[in-house]
Amino acid sequence: MKKLFTISTIVLAVVALTVSCKKSPKEKVEDGFEEVGDGIKDGANEAGDHIKEGYEEVKDEVDDATDAK
Question: 3-class SS at 69?
């Protein structure tokens, strides 16, 4: 009987800890929005980098073409 009580207590404690560690739907949505915001920021930074690289390549080509004349 004592072993059954001990096992029941341990199982109940594990279940309580598991339930308390799960995120609520509101927290999941907030985390999702945060991840989307980070993704948008990263995408904008990458796009800006590509535009800057393209600009520098075109500028170099124009400089080379004007120097050749």
Answer: coil
